[in-house]
Amino acid sequence: MYLLSMWGFNLSLAQVPVGIAYAVWSALGTTLVSTIGILHFDETMNWKKAVCLLLIVAGVVGLNVG
């Protein structure tokens, strides 16, 4: 899966600036890994984790809009 992810990231660089592509790639990775941990490995979810994940997503959206 990691190689597939890197391949997709490489393809996106042909269309998107590196800073934006890396921000989106890392934010999606962080969000997906956190979600998998919560759903499949019984990690706890509290309001602090939820706020932090939302801030990561909001930061990436802000980079794309700005």
TrEMBL record:
Pfam families in alphabetical order: Multi_Drug_Res
Keywords: Cell membrane, Membrane, Transmembrane, Transmembrane helix, Transport
Recorded superkingdom: Eukaryota
Major site of localization recorded for this protein: membrane
GO cellular component: plasma membrane
Localization per Swiss-Prot or TrEMBL: Cell membrane
Topology of this chain in the membrane: Multi-pass membrane protein
Transmembrane regions: 20-39
Database matches in InterPro entries: EmrE-like, Small_drug/metabolite_transptr, Small_multidrug_res
GO molecular function: transmembrane transporter activity
Signal peptide feature range: none
The protein's name in its UniProt record: Uncharacterized protein
Species this protein is from: Fistulifera solaris
